[in-house]
Amino acid sequence: MTHPPSDDPASALPAPPGPGQAVAIRPGLLWVRMPLEGPPWHVNCWLLRDGAGWMLVDAALDRPATRQAWESVIAECLDGLPITRVLVTHFHADHVGLAGWMAERWGAPLLMARTEYLQARLLLLESPATLLSEQAALGEAAGAPADYLRHLLARRPFYRPDVVPLPLHHRRIAAGQVLRVGETAWTLHRGGGHAPEMMLLHDPLGGVLIAADQVLPRISPYVGVFPPEPDADPLADFLDSNNRLLALPAGTLVLPSHGDPFLGLHDRIAVLAAHHAERLALLEAICATPRTAYEASRLMFQRDYDMDQMLFVIGEGLAHLNWLVARGQLVKARGADGVPRYRTPG
Ligand SMILES: [Zn+2]
Questions:
Q1: How far apart are the CA of 34 and the centre of ligand 1, in A?
Q2: How much distance in Å is there from the Cα of 44 to the middle of ligand 1?
Q3: What is the mean pLDDT of the chain?
Q4: What architecture (CATH level 2) is domain 9-283?
């Protein structure tokens, strides 16, 4: 285990741990970083001292190299103590991936919010072919071209290859609860928009927030529409959730799932709000001419994306379009070809 040097004020925030290592954020709170094959290239996981063991927060994607990195963390960084509980912040594969493996290995209970647990179980049970065809149907309704739909249907399946089956029972956690882990009483907060019931852990005495993917330091968390709810308004949920976090002290140390720990929670929330306001204004201007969701999304991002990223371009475009339609700032009407067009009213 490496510790941040304490004699250098510039390094008050620790440098990221290497593969299979852990860095102490403070005594009894360890930071582990696991690799991802695409952006954002890594996911952070946390270990909280839990009496005579450790509670794990998020487990990373299931890959042989990641299992190996966990073996090294377990062997070298946990003082020989067991994992007592496995808490997963939300259902996304890069967070829940190895949680089932960890829970089974240690006989440890799985702690998840109800919606997140059910969503993960549902995605594990659904046939990968159905998940892809539902995503293609969403793209088709957005007016995406045939070559993209073909690419999507032929791609590597979602979710199941990345996630170990979850235990068939869990311990429900929910916003407002206080979760005692060792000496620390963590208050749970709900984050929305990126995932429906993402759990954030706040230690008011220590001034630390485990923020999952709700507030990230450099990238804007993905806020998108998914096939089961095409008319969803996740952007409103995202912005509302962030506004609720403004009740936490501005000096809170934020531990994000992607990127490095940072100070400046309130400033970062303001930057994210401004970013989305800009996107919304841009979309309104784009839709002065009627556009399909596909067209509007591509113009909103103002740069080219490859076929693998198009799913996120369309999903995030739809999130912003739905926000504007719900507030009467855009009108959605079916075109002669059956594909909806979005335009400014009047
Ligand atoms: Zn994530």
A1: 11
A2: 9
A3: 95
A4: 4-Layer Sandwich (3.60)
